[in-house]
UniProtKB/TrEMBL annotation:
One of its GO terms (molecular function) is diphosphomevalonate decarboxylase activity. This is Diphosphomevalonate decarboxylase. The chain holds residues 5 to 353 of 418 of the full protein. It catalyses: (R)-5-diphosphomevalonate + ATP = isopentenyl diphosphate + ADP + phosphate + CO2. It comes from Eucalyptus globulus. It is found in: Peroxisome.
Length: 349
């Protein structure tokens, strides 16, 4: 017999960034972070997990190619989920799996991203969240989404925020064992649904410094990171929560842009410095800043992760269509140049 389960998880975009760990192996961050999860179907991972007595070992395929499951992060997620497995009964197929059986049974996992991995867009967040969620469902794990998020966190920090839709906060927690470092939903996907997310794929190349090693170097060498984590982010988190509750776009945009810029300032403050943004990223920032200043109220927020691609959040559909016109005019897409393509994450929140 074989039992399978399929789940889909969208990626999330941080508007108050996670950058720096206080514990590398448990993946515990130095500050809280807040993100917005894209709508289902946009930039997401679809994962099918299967269990059968015929499987001789755990195996995983990503976009059709087998990848190794031996890394510590995968192993932590598998171990934590297996430890919480409960009895499963599928009457239709006449299958009964007891809590104890799960220790001996092996899994096959197949994951697909609906966006090109080569585009350098964050895929680990959606991927690890989907892995943990689908395994949890298959094994009838009783934990709630927050508890599952603490497991996904051990796969990749940002993954813990993809367990929920809408606006999500990853609480850094205080416990040494990481039990209180988990995600909570601040507002659901309907709360602020006029926002539109557009991703400008500036470069399709893979980033040179991974988030994991970049943040390690920042923790070791950047004084600005210490200041940011202790003094800046705690206050910003409170203000961002308020802006989200009140759907106050002006505050939301000011906070998101400032936080993205400070995160990249921390990267510059790292020794040796890390450059994630390029000239096109800087030109996009200029273009948005100028436009926002020329209007009565800001129309668009920008945020950049560990790469040059811009995530642009428009206040409504009208602002989004004006933004697209501007982008196509100033930054025409051409895979040969520094503006590869655009991904329209239509109505993302
Ligand atoms: C810049 O979650 O990819 O996107 O925990 O080492 O897997 P690991 O790092 P990762 O870092 C994401 C960093 C960021 C900001 C954010 O998503 O908050």
């Amino acid at each position: 017999w074989i039992l399978t389960l399929t789940a889909q998880t969208p990626t999330n975009i941080a508007v108050i960034k996670y950058w720096g760990k206080r514990d590398e192996s448990l993946i515990l961050p130095v500050n809280d972070s807040i993100s917005v999860t894209l709508d289902p179907g946009h930039l997401c991972t679809t994962t099918t997990v299967a269990v059968s007595p015929a499987f001789e070992q755990d195996r995983m395929w990503l976009n059709g190619k087998e990848i190794s499951l031996s890394g510590d992060r995968f192993q932590s997620c598998l171990r934590e989920i297996r430890a919480r497995a409960t009895d499963v009964e599928n009457k239709e197929k006449g299958i009964k799996i007891s809590k104890k059986d799960w220790e001996k049974l092996h899994l096959h996992i197949s994951s697909f991203n609906n966006f090109p991995t080569a585009a350098g867009l964050a895929s680990s967040a959606a991927g690890l969240a989907c892995l943990v969620f689908s395994l949890g469902k298959l094994m009838n794990v009783q934990e709630d989404h927050s508890q599952l998020s603490a497991i996904a966190r051990q796969g990749s920090g940002s993954a813990c925020r993809s367990l929920y839709g809408g606006f999500v906060k990853w609480i850094m927690g205080k416990e040494e064992n990481g039990s209180d470092s988990l995600a909570v939903q601040l507002a659901d996907e309907k709360h602020w649904d006029e926002l539109v997310i557009i991703i400008a794929v500036v470069s399709s190349r893979q980033k040179e410094t991974s988030s994991t090693s970049g943040m390690r170097e920042s923790v070791e060498t950047s004084l600005l990171l210490q200041h940011r984590a202790k003094e800046v982010v705690p206050k910003r988190i409170l203000k961002m929560e308020e802006a989200i509750q009140n759907r106050d776009f002006a505050s939301f945009a000011a906070l998101a842009c400032a936080d993205s810029n400070q995160f990249h300032a921390v990267c510059l403050d790292t020794s040796p410095p890390i450059f994630y943004m390029n000239d096109t990223s800087h030109r996009i920032i200029n273009c948005v800043e100028k436009w926002n200043r020329s209007e009565e109220a800001p129309q668009v927020a920008y945020t950049f992760d560990a790469g040059p691609n811009a995530v642009l959040i428009a206040r409504n559909r009208k602002a989004a269509s004006l933004l697209i016109q501007r982008l196509l005019y100033y930054f025409p897409p051409n895979p040969e140049t520094d503006m590869n393509s655009y991904v329209l994450g239509d109505k993302s929140i």
